[in-house]
Amino acid sequence: MSALRELRWNRESRRRDLRANGEGWGNDVSTPATAYESLGARQAAAQGQTRVVVQDGHCSRAVGSRAVAEAFRQALAGRADAVLMIAGCDGACWLAPRVLVITPDGQQVARHEIMPGERLTAFGHVRPEDAAGIVASLAAPMAAAPDAGAFWSLQRRVVLRDCGAGDALSLDDYVARGGYGGLAKALAMPPEEVIGEVLRADLRGRGGAYFPAGRKWQAARAAQLSKKGPLYLVVNAEEGEPGVFKDRHVMEGDPHRLIEGLLIAAYAAGASKAYIYINAEANLSAERVEIAVAQARERGVTGDGVLGPAFACAVEVRRGAGGYVCGEETTLLNTIEGYRRVPRLRPPFPTDAGLWSRPTVIQNVETLANLPFILSEGADAYRRIGQGAPGTKLVSLSGAVQRPGLVEVALGTTLRQIVYDIGGGPKPGRRIVAVAAGGPSGGLLPEAALDVAISPGLLHPTGAVLGSGGMTVVDDTMPVPQVVHMLAQYNARESCGKCTPCREGTPRMAQALERLVEGKGSAKDIEELRALAEIVPAASLCGLGQMAAGPITSALHFFGDEFSRLAR
Amino acid sequence: MDPKIQKVLDSQTRTVTVLSCLIAIQESFGYLVEGAIPAVAQRTGASVNDVYSVATFYTHFRFQPPGEHQIELCWGPSCQIFRSDALMKQAEEFAGIKFNGTTPDKKYTLRGLECAGACALAPVGKLDGTLVGRLTPEKLRERLIAMRQNGGGGHHG
Predict the structure, then answer these.
(1) Contact assignment for A62 to B115 by CB distance below 8 Å
(2) What is the full per-residue pLDDT of chain A (568 aa) written as tens digits?
(3) Contact A100, A165 (CB under 8 A)
(4) ipTM, 2 decimals?
(5) Secondary structure (3-state) at A450
(6) Measuring CA to CA, which residue among A466, A335, A488, A483 is closest to residue A392?
(7) How far is B119 from chain A (nearest CA, A)?
(8) Which of B57, B75, B113, B126 to probe by mutation at the A interface, max A CB count within 10 Å?
(9) CB < 8 Å to A440, chain B
(10) Could you tell me if A136 and A101 are in contact, meaning their C-beta atoms sit under 8 angstroms apart?
């Protein structure tokens, strides 16, 4: 017997044994539905108790959430009626560190409802010394949450539904919130039907390219037919693009939602192994995802059997070692294989020959985190969200607004609503000048153009894109050419050097901008910028070079006067 | 092969690649120690040249032991809009060297972060591996002085 056949035989016989003995998935493991039922048999730990939820995400830690969590742990010691729960952040970063109090009986002041019958009170800017007071008054009505304006009311939270309120460290809590229900539903359908449902929902890749997820899965399935051997799923959790911090929130706050989405995609595409690639800086994401993967494996949700013996998928977390090089997916494959992060020529596309030359489906964290909703609520429910295109988008809002944070809005929401209503507009005494949409790879939109509705692809022909949803707001404290210079410097530093026009062109653009900003520039520098802005994108293999001119082209278009003044 | 390096390379429990070996060595020693490159080449079957190209490509790796204290400041766009350049100047004055580098007495290492992913709390930095948000030059100065007074260190960020 060949080694491979032996391996397969062993796995098959192990499944038969498990089935016969009823081990691993409870007593009756004949269907995913019964396996799922037995998964939910354990009750969430906190039922009937007040939950004090400390939002402990990696950015909240930067303003002291760990000390707050520790203070609450001490204050809650010995209390039978209340428990401490660690969550990720809900996206109201300007209020961090945040603490929520969720009572089981509905007696408290409510801001919004979390679960039927439960009420929630939120605190912002919590200090460790506040813990004793908050815990002492748990039974009494609490002060209302700080004014958040339209921060919540304009959001439509699908991916982030439980981020900040759900237990980030518990599979049971996720199941109690309905988690893994979408996976159970998917496993009861043939993979082709799951693909059909996702195509009908028109779910497109949220990493920035907006390619239909279902079509990727179809292509990989077709490629695998002609090549015997494994098919891989790679989760792109690199999120190296500056100004974007969405995937981190999902991984830190609701890691099981990512794993559920991953398993749905793996089942539909026919992947037997999944790699979650997490960047070198995102330690807390990696920590929480590792915990969730271990829990899922232990409870029969991943590994040799996914809610039963019919489908197997192993999940492994891989770490990177720095460097941006765009969201370019072929560079990611080189990193997982352990080599330099340079792009590959396409074709072949990863769905034909990706990781270790095997058919490979690559999806972003946010894309996958939409799947539990699509499967459990159905494609029609998903299609009812959004205008122009279905679904929501996570937007990382930072820069010169009053309420920076991570928000989830229906597609079709305008940038003006995001910046002014959700973000609260400019800081007192300031004026918003532009929004850098899509970071160093996007473009600048002037204030007057903010009425554009967000949709996949270009927000303006000059280069502003929705991309992965990074929005950095620029006010009148810094001149636009200086902002563009800074973005160009970023691209120059991050160019990997594989394509000469990008390696040589991005520093040249940054130098021309530097001369202009320092008042040593001339009209020739602007000419050079225009020329390079055509050459570099045309002659580069990956997104970094292809998009590097975006901020320059758009800024010259909208803020040309400011550059001309500098060129004199 | 240096037995200490060998032990680190053998302790990997997952898919072993050139990159995973280099990460394991840096996590264990704080930097890529002498002998690391040929050891990784030997372990993975890649050429020394290939391993070296990987080690010099990723910004994460260093070939010198880091200073006792790590001062990292974010130079992403959101942080720059909130004048991270003023923070960098403050740190440079404090340590007496420019970004990126290590002081001759190996006390402080200054490093720019590409983006710490905490843009809503900009400007941010990492001091001895701990992320600090909503920084001002004054707040940074306080933290740096506290860092100097507390001494210790030894954290490999």
Answers:
(1) no
(2) 344 444 344 444 444 444 444 344 444 456 888 888 888 766 555 567 888 889 999 989 999 999 999 999 999 998 988 899 999 999 988 888 888 888 775 443 333 333 344 556 677 788 899 888 888 877 665 555 555 668 888 999 999 999 998 899 999 999 988 999 999 999 999 999 999 999 999 999 998 889 999 999 999 999 999 888 899 999 999 888 889 999 999 999 999 999 999 999 999 999 999 999 998 889 999 999 999 999 999 999 999 999 999 999 999 999 888 766 645 788 889 989 988 888 888 889 999 999 999 999 999 999 999 999 999 999 999 999 999 999 999 999 999 999 999 999 999 999 999 999 999 999 999 999 999 987 777 889 999 999 999 999 888 888 788 989 999 999 999 999 999 999 999 889 888 888 899 999 999 999 999 999 999 999 999 999 999 999 999 998 887 888 889 999 999 999 999 999 999 7
(3) yes
(4) 0.89
(5) coil
(6) A466
(7) 6
(8) B57
(9) 77
(10) no
Q: Please answer yes or no on whether A398 and B132 come within 8 Å at the CB atom.
A: no
Closest CA to A117 of A54, A47, A166: A47
Ordered domains of chain B (ranges, CATH): 3-57 (no CATH), 69-150 (3.40.30.10)
Q: Which residues lie below 8 Å from residue A450, measured CB to CB, with a gap of 6+?
A: A414, A415, A416, A419, A420, A435
Whether A67 and chain B come into contact, CB under 8 Å, resolves to no
- Tell me the C-alpha distance between B34 and A482, whole Å: 42
Phi and psi at residue A405, to the nearest 5°: 170, -170
Whose structure tokens read 């949220």? Answer: A206
Q: Which residue in chain A is spatially nearest to B56 when comparing CA positions?
A: A340
φ/ψ of residue A241, rounded to 5: -65, 125
Would the CA dihedral through A185, A190, A191, A196 be positive or negative? negative
Q: Where are the alpha helices (DSSP H) in A119-254?
A: 131-136, 171-176, 181-187, 191-201, 213-226, 246-253
Q: Is residue B105 within 8 Å of B118, Cβ to Cβ? A: no
How many helices (H) and strands (E) are present in chain A, helices listed first? 22, 13
Q: Tokens at residue A339, please?
A: 């080599």
| DSSP H helix total and E strand total for chain B | 7, 5
- The token duo for A495 is 């160019």
